[in-house]
Amino acid sequence: MEHRAYWAIRTFNYDLTQVGKKRLLQLNELDELWRESYEISRIYKERLKLFHDKTITRKTFEPNQKVLLYSSRLHIFPGKLRSRWTGSFIVKVVYSYEAVEIENPDTGKSFKVNGQRLKPFLEHFDNQEDSEDLVHPLYQDPPSK
After folding, report:
1. Torsion angle of alpha carbons 49, 51, 55, 60, nearest 10°?
2. Residue 131 pLDDT more than 70?
3. Rounded to whole angstroms, how far apart are CA atoms 87 and 104?
4. How far apart are CA 4 and CA 8, in angstroms?
5. Partners of 68 in the beta sheet?
6. Which of 7, 9, 5 is nearest to 17 (CA)?
7. Taking CA 27 as the corner, what is the angle to CA 24 and CA 28, rounded to the nearest 5 degrees?
8. How does pLDDT run across 24-66, given as a tens digit for each residue?
């Protein structure tokens, strides 16, 4: 087999040193393209991470603050309008790295959860401020004389 390959090279009048140099050049170009694509991919990932990190809102919790807990259980038939946020819990201790100890006010049971599973509980507030009925000026009765 080697004899036939050698014979083919000789018949086409190829110089083995030139062929070797050309092949080495092709391998170097391929390696350069690979490194360039790897660098472009790394830059793209960095930019995407920066964009994503800008949209993340950091949540801070204080002790005695009311929070809601995200229920991450698998629901077979969850329903469209059913909320996955459960109860109002009270924050007892805030640890480092977003760990939070919360307490259920109904049972008094306390447990630690990841802070990413919590969101602040907004109390119901009365929106009964002093309001006036607006009257459209075109539909007012003309002043009587």
Report:
1. 50
2. no
3. 8
4. 6
5. 119
6. 9
7. 85
8. 999 999 999 999 999 999 999 999 999 998 888 778 899 999 9
Asked if residue 116 lies in contact with residue 67, where contact means CB atoms within 8 angstroms, the answer is no
Residues whose CB is less than 8 angstroms from the CB of residue 68 and which lie 6 or more positions away in sequence, other chains included? 85, 86, 87, 88, 89, 118, 119, 120, 121
pTM: predicted TM-score of the whole model, two decimal places = 0.49
Query: In whole angstroms, what is the distance from residue 105 CA to residue 66 CA?
Result: 10
How far apart CA 71 and CA 86 sit, in angstroms, is 6
User: How confident is the model over 66-107, as pLDDT tens digits?
Assistant: 999 998 776 677 676 677 888 889 999 999 888 999 999 999
How far the first Cα of the chain sits from its last, in Å, is 121
Closest CA to 99 of 109, 89, 112: 112
Q: Rounding to the nearest 10 degrees, give the CA dihedral for residues 87, 98, 124, 109.
A: 30
